[in-house]
Design brief:
Shape: globular
Protein name: Possible tyrosine transporter P-protein
Strand content: under 5%
Pfam families: CitMHS (PF03600)
Helix content: over 70%
Distance between the termini: 37 Å
Keywords: Cell membrane, Membrane, Transmembrane, Transmembrane helix, Transport
Mean pLDDT: 84
Number of helices: 20
Subcellular location: Cell membrane
Number of strands: 2
Family: Belongs to the CitM (TC 2.A.11) transporter family.
Amino acid sequence: MKTLAIILFILMYVLLIIFKKHRAKIAIATAIIFVVTGILPYTQVFAAIDWNILLMLFGTMVIVDYFIESKMPNLIADKLLDLAPNVMWVTILMSLFAGIISAFIDNVATLLMVAPVGLAICKKLKISPVSMIICIAVSSNLQGAATLVGDTTSIMLAGAAKMDFNDFFWMQGKPGIFFAVELGALATVPIMMILFRKDKEPVHSDERTVVTDYIPTITMLGHVIFLVFASFFPNKPELTNGIICMVWGIINIVWEIIVSKGTDSMWHSLKAIDYDTMLLLAGLFCVIAGITNVGLIDDLAHIIAGAGKDNVFLLYTLIVFGSVAISAFIDNIPYVATMLPVLASLAGVMAVNPLLLYFGLLIGATLGGNLTPIGASANIAGVGMLRKEGYEVSFGDFMRIGLPFTLTAVVVGYLFIWIVYA
């Protein structure tokens, strides 16, 4: 049974890498095979799926779509333009702005919000938008791990480590992963100043975005505040965070139906939800439960522990930079979903704080995607946007910015987590 599970798992991973547009189908099909072959008993399927994560994703995606449609992010971008004296600082401020938004909103959604503003600025100044859009894309990826709702991998980490919103800021009496990510983000500012030191053309904006609907902003803030508030209650139901996100999403839908006297906005929001990612996760949850049942997770933990030669620092380093290398070429969602239970078992084997390994995994896997234009969905979306504008981006063009960004942010986060949690 274990051999069959290994073969199916490896085959699934290979297919996920080759057929990116069919990831959800591949994961669900593998999960069905696991159930049919008895690797995962059908009685365990419902329990294997983390419904809290799926509810959080669904509710947050609804809120994000309304927030984007409200044009509030564009208004904030207009304000930032007033602060920038030249193109270099526009690029830096737009990148930091994208990072801040990405701490609370999906990376691709962040790119879709901020990149059009960057394109408009570059057209006005008659300069190439390639560098600015790449910076916005990598910044969107960079800060996705900063908060509970910033990225799918953060939500998965929270489920594995039983973390609440506040735990990303302060965990076990120590500064959380938020500070590791933000320090890494700040460290990239000097990198951008060096990369764009020649871009000193003055810039200004005569246009002003008009926001007529502030309810999406209220629901965006409301669901974050409620997640923070819920963090203070111990032993709460496992679905608490998911229900909070769903309720605020429903409030937004109902309000918009009442105001617009129709359901067009609701259907727009529901269509914008990334159902493929949700189905992918549901399938992966079942597959991981299956390989855990047959003992494969424990086997992997012992293999990795052996590679680390019982040296925690070496093991931690392998996890961080191995994750960077892997995530540069494959999607980090299935990778993180696979590794979280492995690291939980590994922490028990080596008697180390699991947070050290969890946070190291997220630092490497989240930031590693910035190395290449195919390493993260936001990068792919950004390159696609540039292609539509007539700009082809090569691996070299992307890595000129992605490589120093990634190495700087990863090293800073890597050192911070080791110093605080080792």
